[in-house]
Amino acid sequence: MLAVLRISYNLFYYACGRDAAIRGRFCMKKALKIVVIVLALGFVILQFFRIDKVNPPINAADTLEAAVEVPPDIQIILGRSCNDCHSNTTIYPWYANIQPSAWYVKDHIDDGRRHLNFSIFNTYPLSKKQKKLSELCEQVRSEEMPLPAYLWIHRDAKMRPGDAEALCSWTNTAIAALEKASSN
Ligand code: HEC
Q1: Number of compact structural domains in the chain
Q2: pLDDT tens string 136-161
Q3: What radius of gyration, in Å, describes the C-alpha atoms of the chain?
Q4: Fewer CB near the terminus (10 Å): N or C of the chain?
Q5: Mean pLDDT of 19-38
Q6: Residue 19 sits in the same domain as residue 110
Q7: % the chain with pLDDT above 70
């Protein structure tokens, strides 16, 4: 984007000359036209950069469900509000087909999966599993998750009354169950 602005500026300079102010409105119009053309061109060129939208494969033995019991009501909340960024079952929104928003989407998904990926949850060591579950509860309670930017467009991903408490009560149970299973 910076490069585009720079090119626009240079074109303006060459089109209007150093004493553009004296020439007045005509040159301003011409310069604006050039800026618009350059921005439009930049936008078109950006569209050639596609993101990789192929979900990584899922191995059933590696998933959250293989590690802990996930009741249907919890599945529904996670599926509705979290899985697009925290699993390998991402459904890409329409704006993932348009740049530069596609990069923005991809960035959130990569970052989200790096921090917590339900599809490979069972590959985490015990302490990491427990830590991630307790963070999950904290993040929804403090309303940091789902990411606010995601909710602008995914309106039904918004947490409903009672969702955060249901998730926290489930994570507490799951953390205890993991503890118990490991000490057996
Ligand atoms: C639009 C993508 C997106 C959605 C939807 C989303 N997250 Fe996140 N999540 C992220 C990103 C990106 C990070 C890492 C950066 C950060 O912490 O802000 C993150 C971080 C987290 C973390 C912190 C993990 C750590 O290691 O600190 C937890 C826990 C979490 N999310 C849980 C959830 C839960 C639960 C939901 C659903 C209620 C959810 N997220 C929905 C993108 C998302």
Answers
A1: 2
A2: 999 999 999 999 999 999 999 999 99
A3: 24
A4: C
A5: 74
A6: no
A7: 91
Residue 117 lies in a domain: yes
Pick 105 or 25 by higher pLDDT: 105
- Pair 38, 68 in one domain: no
pLDDT category, 29, cuts 50, 70, 90? Answer: confident
100 & 131 share domain:
yes
Q: What are the b/e assignments for 6-35, b being 16+ CB within 10 Å?
A: ebbeebbeeebeeebeeeeeebeebbeebb
What whole-number distance in Å separates Cα of residue 113 and Cα of residue 179?
24
Residue nearest atom 7 in ligand 1 by C-alpha distance: 146
Q: Are residues 106 and 137 in the same domain?
A: yes
With respect to residue 142, please indicate whether it lies within any of the assigned structural domains: yes
Pocket lining for ligand 1, CB < 6 angstroms: 81-82, 84-86, 108, 111-112, 115-116, 135-136, 139-140, 145-147, 150
